[in-house]
User: Fold this.
Amino acid sequence: MYSSFSKAGLAVTFSPTGKMLLSEAARLQALFGFKLYLLHVGEKDEVTRQRLEHLVEENIFPKEVEIVWLEGEPAKAIVKKSKELELDLLIIGALEKEKGLKNIMGSVARNIMRNCHCPVLIFTKPESERFGFNNIVVSVCYDGKGEEAARVAIEIARHDHPADFTFIKEINVPGLPSVVFDSGSTYETGSMKKELIGLEKQKIKFFGLELGLQEDEFQNEVLYGVEGWECLNYASETNADLLVVTMGERKLSFIDRIFAHDLEFLFERIPTNTLLYK
Amino acid sequence: MSHNEIVIFLVAISIMLFFARFLGEVFSKLKQPAIIGEIIAGILLGPTVFGNLMPELQGTLFPQSGNVSLVMNGIVQLAVIMLLIVSGLEVNLALIAKQGKTAVYTSTLGMVIPFVTGFIPFYFFSDAFGAHDGDNLIFALFMGTALSISALPVIARTLMDMNLLKSEIGVIIIASAIVNDLFGWIFFSIIIGMISSGGSANYLTQIGGIFLFLAVLFFIGKPVIDRLVPRIQKNYSYPGSILSFIFIAGITAAAITEAAGIHAIFGAFMIGVVVGDSSHLKEETREIIHQFVTNIFAPLFFISIGLKVDFVASFNPLLVSIVLVLAIAGKVIGSGLGARLGGMSHPEAMTIGFGMNSRGAMEIILGILALQAGIINEEVFVALVVMALVTSLVSAPMMSIFLARIKKFENLSQIIDPGLIIFTAQAEKTAIIKELVGAVSAQAGVSSGKMYQEVMQREAAFAPVIIPGLALPHAKLDVKRPWIAISVNPKGYIYSEETVEPVYLTILLISPKDKPELHLNLLAGIVGAVGEEDAISRLTETTDKAAIAAHFKDRT
Assistant:
């Protein structure tokens, strides 16, 4: 059977969240059938080994699980090992928001999200007994990567049967409010927005159909506003439990953190469990 | 103010507002920037026309000194600050940060080259152009800045009228114009600072002050404003409270920068930038602010220019021509070259060059401030105003010329070819698709067998009858550009077992594999054009292929 992921890693800790993450990983392993590597940063001693093994035994893993010991700065070590192991998915836990300077300088989770070579599934709200995602929101990107991300979402949705499965697209016309400045009317800008939203709705519909979905299998929503920001608000407002977003080719720099746009908003605030596809 | 003075002041304001708005609307109706009408209204009411015909009445209504003039100046000063807050709101820093190298090259060269073309001649020949003695450097720096600035509102309007606002070219122009505005105002503030500091030893302190203000604003002010904006919008009366907040912040910052010797406009502009950058600021709020400032303060400001300056007496044809030539050459060559280096084709680069060329309102604000500060005289000011108006006027027609030469095959009007429209009596899906494939395959350079196979494979994946009467078979193949062929069967036929209603139009779309979004755009565009009321009956009743093609052309 085709599966999007064959090798996945899980950054494991001994916190209560860490335990729940293992449970989530076990469920996903049943879905995708990947080999799971437990990545632990810390000294390899007998006590820790036993604790880790005990954690593994608490869950039912349908496929192979291997413990990998790492040393050094956690984010760097995990990113490096993910590449060496040629993982195609990395699962981590993260806080919804980082405070103050950490937000600018980056926490472990944020650094992994930025620098990992493969898709990262970030759990901000892990559960120990999840039966499936119930509200999946996919922020649509029309390029090849975006299509792959949507295919993964469809794979999850076909398994989990969420109550809501929504494709959303954010659109924005730079300079549109300025038109009002030079003798334009809000009626004019309003009708332009309406027209663009209509066109975009058609595009999302075709996007879904092209990926083999039936019309009644997904909803579509077009959000006019700040790109990268509106999808986060939508995910929060609709209580989505999985958000799927695609990361573009361009590496974001420090400048992007100050003048935040697109994914930078996500790094500032992760509204829910998020699959960052890249 | 005495009772009489109050009456004169109120009458003057209402006359100014009436004439400015009236002529502004007239120019809008003529599809020209409203600001041209507003300035002409000032010329009519000012010393140039009204003052010449009825000097006494003009002098009573619009006095150049005394209490009425003082209050009027106060209002105009406030109007400039408001205009700068609004201009700042439109500086979308994220748009700049996320634009690729094309916007970076376009904005950089679109600023540097006009700056140089402005600076060099005015530095070496400033006496001939009317600079004040000893002010050569400041005058030349100002002229460089004045020639390198762009006017976002006029540009946005032109792009919208030309249906380019959402296009790649449109976004590059907007992003580059924003960069030019931002740096233009920073440069101008430095120049003003140089004057008020009065000596070269103090230049560095002034520049240091500007950067200190920027640092405090971005690292402390911005996070605070970002937290305040959503709270104000949520917890207090909307939109009243957020409007008040923006203007209070803008005017306070203006006061701070003025006190620091930079210039009030700089603080106002930068507050606009920071507030506008907040993702929490509602789009609706922006439009309300625009409406408020555009319809009340902007007309008062632009009409006041004509009231102060005699355009006929200060019109120096040689100077006007020189400024005009330098401005157009510098901007079009600079921005065009930047766009070309950024990877755009020659006609695209020229379209961008002329798109960036509009100076409009920004130039005039810059000019009047320079006139007030004594950097330039009235002759130079008039030349700048004429240049601002002419560049705004020629922008759209010049862009159209080069736009027509761009062949990118990205919209239906460029792709649909009457030669690929077939009237058929066939009433069977596979036969019709074969006909369409036969028409397209040779031109697209793909074998008809392969194309047919790909199309039929898609057919199996999902039903292509999206709206009643239209079937839309399609495929993505290794082709260089998209192809569309249309088959018309006026009697209709049953497309497949699942479809009940007959299909009259079968449109085959073949798109390049590497452009997935273009494929979706075209699918959505076709559905939009055919989905209009009566479109199917209109398209099937005619036998004129050109008319069918025109139906799609009209809508893209």
